[in-house]
Specification:
The chain is α/β, with parallel strands linked by helices. The chain contains five helices and twelve strands. 26% of the residues lie in helices and 29% in strands. Bound molecules: cytidine-5'-monophosphate.
Length: 219
Protein backbone atom coordinates (compact mmCIF):
# COMPACT_ATOMS: atom_id res chain seq x y z
CA UNK A 1 0.00 0.00 0.00
CA UNK A 2 1.19 3.52 -0.87
CA UNK A 3 2.14 5.65 2.12
CA UNK A 4 -0.43 8.30 3.09
CA UNK A 5 1.59 11.24 4.39
CA UNK A 6 -1.54 13.36 4.84
CA UNK A 7 -3.74 10.74 6.51
CA UNK A 8 -6.36 12.32 8.76
CA UNK A 9 -5.71 15.87 7.55
CA UNK A 10 -8.58 18.08 6.41
CA UNK A 11 -8.08 20.20 3.28
CA UNK A 12 -10.38 22.96 2.07
CA UNK A 13 -9.56 24.10 -1.46
CA UNK A 14 -11.14 26.63 -3.81
CA UNK A 15 -11.01 26.03 -7.56
CA UNK A 16 -12.28 27.32 -10.87
CA UNK A 17 -13.60 30.75 -11.77
CA UNK A 18 -16.40 32.67 -10.12
CA UNK A 19 -19.31 34.18 -12.02
CA UNK A 20 -20.68 37.56 -11.03
CA UNK A 21 -24.19 38.21 -12.30
CA UNK A 22 -24.94 41.47 -14.11
CA UNK A 23 -28.58 40.59 -14.82
CA UNK A 24 -30.48 37.27 -15.03
CA UNK A 25 -28.72 36.26 -18.27
CA UNK A 26 -25.24 37.85 -18.11
CA UNK A 27 -22.19 37.63 -15.92
CA UNK A 28 -18.55 38.63 -15.47
CA UNK A 29 -16.08 35.75 -15.27
CA UNK A 30 -12.66 34.56 -16.49
CA UNK A 31 -11.02 31.66 -18.34
CA UNK A 32 -10.04 29.52 -15.34
CA UNK A 33 -10.67 25.85 -16.20
CA UNK A 34 -10.44 24.57 -12.63
CA UNK A 35 -7.95 21.87 -13.74
CA UNK A 36 -5.18 22.77 -11.28
CA UNK A 37 -7.49 22.95 -8.27
CA UNK A 38 -9.27 19.70 -9.17
CA UNK A 39 -5.90 17.99 -9.68
CA UNK A 40 -4.76 19.15 -6.24
CA UNK A 41 -8.03 17.98 -4.68
CA UNK A 42 -7.58 14.54 -6.27
CA UNK A 43 -3.90 14.30 -5.27
CA UNK A 44 -4.65 15.33 -1.69
CA UNK A 45 -7.39 12.69 -1.45
CA UNK A 46 -4.93 10.04 -2.69
CA UNK A 47 -2.43 11.16 -0.05
CA UNK A 48 -4.99 10.64 2.70
CA UNK A 49 -6.69 14.03 3.09
CA UNK A 50 -10.38 14.58 3.70
CA UNK A 51 -11.05 17.08 0.93
CA UNK A 52 -13.70 19.80 0.76
CA UNK A 53 -13.60 21.28 -2.77
CA UNK A 54 -15.30 24.67 -3.07
CA UNK A 55 -15.75 24.99 -6.80
CA UNK A 56 -16.89 27.76 -9.08
CA UNK A 57 -18.68 26.77 -12.30
CA UNK A 58 -16.50 24.42 -14.37
CA UNK A 59 -16.95 21.39 -16.59
CA UNK A 60 -14.93 18.84 -14.65
CA UNK A 61 -16.07 15.65 -12.90
CA UNK A 62 -15.78 15.65 -9.10
CA UNK A 63 -12.58 13.83 -8.15
CA UNK A 64 -13.03 10.43 -6.47
CA UNK A 65 -13.69 10.64 -2.74
CA UNK A 66 -13.80 14.44 -2.64
CA UNK A 67 -16.73 16.46 -1.20
CA UNK A 68 -17.60 19.08 -3.77
CA UNK A 69 -19.46 22.27 -2.89
CA UNK A 70 -20.61 24.12 -6.00
CA UNK A 71 -20.75 27.89 -5.79
CA UNK A 72 -21.22 30.65 -8.34
CA UNK A 73 -20.10 34.02 -6.97
CA UNK A 74 -17.11 35.19 -4.94
CA UNK A 75 -19.39 35.97 -1.99
CA UNK A 76 -20.76 32.40 -2.07
CA UNK A 77 -17.21 31.05 -2.32
CA UNK A 78 -16.26 33.08 0.76
CA UNK A 79 -19.33 32.01 2.77
CA UNK A 80 -18.90 28.33 1.88
CA UNK A 81 -15.15 28.38 2.55
CA UNK A 82 -15.61 30.00 5.96
CA UNK A 83 -18.30 27.46 6.87
CA UNK A 84 -15.92 24.57 6.05
CA UNK A 85 -12.57 25.86 7.27
CA UNK A 86 -13.19 25.24 10.96
CA UNK A 87 -10.83 22.41 12.06
CA UNK A 88 -9.15 22.34 8.65
CA UNK A 89 -5.41 21.64 8.62
CA UNK A 90 -4.79 23.12 5.17
CA UNK A 91 -6.51 25.76 3.04
CA UNK A 92 -5.50 26.23 -0.59
CA UNK A 93 -6.86 29.16 -2.61
CA UNK A 94 -6.62 27.96 -6.18
CA UNK A 95 -9.72 29.67 -7.56
CA UNK A 96 -9.55 32.57 -9.99
CA UNK A 97 -11.94 34.73 -8.02
CA UNK A 98 -13.40 37.65 -9.97
CA UNK A 99 -11.91 40.82 -8.50
CA UNK A 100 -15.09 42.82 -9.02
CA UNK A 101 -18.85 42.27 -9.24
CA UNK A 102 -21.64 44.49 -10.55
CA UNK A 103 -22.54 47.03 -7.87
CA UNK A 104 -26.21 46.34 -8.55
CA UNK A 105 -27.67 43.22 -10.14
CA UNK A 106 -30.51 44.09 -12.51
CA UNK A 107 -33.74 42.23 -11.71
CA UNK A 108 -34.60 41.94 -15.39
CA UNK A 109 -32.57 41.57 -18.57
CA UNK A 110 -30.90 44.87 -19.41
CA UNK A 111 -32.18 46.17 -22.75
CA UNK A 112 -29.93 47.69 -25.37
CA UNK A 113 -30.75 51.31 -26.10
CA UNK A 114 -27.87 53.77 -25.88
CA UNK A 115 -24.66 53.37 -27.91
CA UNK A 116 -22.60 53.11 -24.75
CA UNK A 117 -23.37 51.95 -21.26
CA UNK A 118 -21.54 51.86 -17.95
CA UNK A 119 -21.67 49.15 -15.31
CA UNK A 120 -20.41 50.15 -11.91
CA UNK A 121 -18.27 47.47 -10.25
CA UNK A 122 -17.64 46.79 -6.57
CA UNK A 123 -14.55 45.04 -5.23
CA UNK A 124 -15.14 41.43 -4.20
CA UNK A 125 -14.00 40.01 -0.84
CA UNK A 126 -10.66 38.17 -0.86
CA UNK A 127 -11.41 34.56 0.10
CA UNK A 128 -7.79 33.59 0.71
CA UNK A 129 -6.93 36.66 2.79
CA UNK A 130 -10.13 36.20 4.83
CA UNK A 131 -9.15 32.64 5.74
CA UNK A 132 -5.56 33.71 6.47
CA UNK A 133 -6.90 36.39 8.83
CA UNK A 134 -8.75 33.88 11.04
CA UNK A 135 -7.48 33.41 14.60
CA UNK A 136 -7.19 29.64 14.36
CA UNK A 137 -6.23 29.41 10.75
CA UNK A 138 -5.15 26.36 8.79
CA UNK A 139 -1.81 26.19 6.94
CA UNK A 140 -2.78 28.64 4.21
CA UNK A 141 -1.51 28.40 0.64
CA UNK A 142 -2.18 30.85 -2.18
CA UNK A 143 -1.56 30.95 -5.90
CA UNK A 144 -0.10 33.78 -7.91
CA UNK A 145 -0.49 34.02 -11.66
CA UNK A 146 2.12 36.45 -12.92
CA UNK A 147 3.56 37.51 -16.26
CA UNK A 148 6.83 39.05 -14.98
CA UNK A 149 8.96 39.50 -11.82
CA UNK A 150 7.39 36.32 -10.45
CA UNK A 151 9.43 36.04 -7.26
CA UNK A 152 8.98 39.67 -6.28
CA UNK A 153 5.20 39.67 -6.78
CA UNK A 154 4.75 36.24 -5.18
CA UNK A 155 6.70 37.18 -2.05
CA UNK A 156 4.81 40.44 -1.82
CA UNK A 157 1.48 38.60 -2.09
CA UNK A 158 2.50 36.03 0.51
CA UNK A 159 3.33 38.79 2.99
CA UNK A 160 0.33 41.00 2.19
CA UNK A 161 -2.17 38.14 2.51
CA UNK A 162 -0.37 36.57 5.50
CA UNK A 163 0.17 33.18 3.79
CA UNK A 164 2.29 30.21 4.86
CA UNK A 165 3.14 29.34 1.27
CA UNK A 166 2.53 30.61 -2.26
CA UNK A 167 2.69 28.76 -5.58
CA UNK A 168 3.45 31.07 -8.49
CA UNK A 169 3.19 30.39 -12.17
CA UNK A 170 4.11 32.35 -15.24
CA UNK A 171 0.93 32.73 -17.25
CA UNK A 172 2.80 34.44 -20.10
CA UNK A 173 4.30 31.08 -21.16
CA UNK A 174 2.23 29.06 -23.63
CA UNK A 175 1.19 25.49 -22.85
CA UNK A 176 1.06 25.98 -19.12
CA UNK A 177 -1.25 27.68 -16.67
CA UNK A 178 -4.81 28.73 -17.60
CA UNK A 179 -6.68 25.95 -19.41
CA UNK A 180 -3.57 23.88 -20.16
CA UNK A 181 -2.97 20.31 -18.96
CA UNK A 182 0.55 21.15 -17.84
CA UNK A 183 1.95 23.66 -15.44
CA UNK A 184 5.18 24.63 -13.69
CA UNK A 185 5.28 26.26 -10.27
CA UNK A 186 7.72 28.26 -8.23
CA UNK A 187 6.78 27.67 -4.62
CA UNK A 188 7.81 30.10 -1.88
CA UNK A 189 7.48 30.01 1.90
CA UNK A 190 8.93 32.46 4.43
CA UNK A 191 12.26 30.60 4.74
CA UNK A 192 12.74 29.06 1.32
CA UNK A 193 11.63 28.18 -2.16
CA UNK A 194 11.42 25.27 -4.57
CA UNK A 195 10.80 24.99 -8.30
CA UNK A 196 8.37 22.31 -9.47
CA UNK A 197 9.29 21.77 -13.13
CA UNK A 198 6.81 21.65 -16.02
CA UNK A 199 4.66 18.53 -15.67
CA UNK A 200 1.09 17.31 -16.04
CA UNK A 201 -1.10 19.08 -13.52
CA UNK A 202 -1.81 15.69 -11.87
CA UNK A 203 1.88 14.96 -11.20
CA UNK A 204 2.52 18.56 -10.20
CA UNK A 205 -0.40 18.48 -7.76
CA UNK A 206 1.09 15.47 -5.94
CA UNK A 207 4.46 17.22 -5.68
CA UNK A 208 2.84 20.35 -4.28
CA UNK A 209 0.86 18.36 -1.70
CA UNK A 210 4.03 16.49 -0.63
CA UNK A 211 5.81 19.82 -0.20
CA UNK A 212 2.89 21.09 1.90
CA UNK A 213 3.01 17.87 3.96
CA UNK A 214 6.68 18.57 4.76
CA UNK A 215 5.80 22.05 6.00
CA UNK A 216 2.53 21.76 7.93
CA UNK A 217 4.16 20.06 10.87
CA UNK A 218 6.79 22.78 11.12
CA UNK A 219 4.13 25.45 11.52
O1 LIG B 1 -4.50 39.04 -5.47
P1 LIG B 1 -4.51 37.91 -6.45
O2 LIG B 1 -5.85 37.71 -7.11
O3 LIG B 1 -3.42 37.94 -7.45
O4 LIG B 1 -4.23 36.63 -5.53
C1 LIG B 1 -4.32 35.33 -6.01
C2 LIG B 1 -4.59 34.41 -4.87
O5 LIG B 1 -5.61 34.93 -4.02
C3 LIG B 1 -5.11 33.07 -5.33
O6 LIG B 1 -4.71 32.11 -4.38
C4 LIG B 1 -6.63 33.29 -5.31
O7 LIG B 1 -7.32 32.07 -5.17
C5 LIG B 1 -6.81 34.17 -4.10
N1 LIG B 1 -7.92 35.13 -4.18
C6 LIG B 1 -9.05 34.94 -3.40
N2 LIG B 1 -10.08 35.86 -3.43
C7 LIG B 1 -10.00 36.94 -4.23
C8 LIG B 1 -8.86 37.14 -5.03
C9 LIG B 1 -7.84 36.21 -4.99
O8 LIG B 1 -9.15 33.95 -2.66
N3 LIG B 1 -11.01 37.80 -4.27
Amino acid sequence: LAPKPLAGKKLVITAGPTQEAIDPVRYISNHSSGKMGYAIAAAAQQLGCRVELVSGPCNLPSPYGVNRHSVVSAQQMLDTSLSLVNNADIFIGCAAVADYRAADQAQHKIKKSQATMTIELTRNPDVLASVAALDKRPFTVGFAAETQDIEKYALDKMQRKNLDMIAANNVALTGQGFGADQNALQVFWPQGKQTLELADKTALATKLMLLIAEHINKK
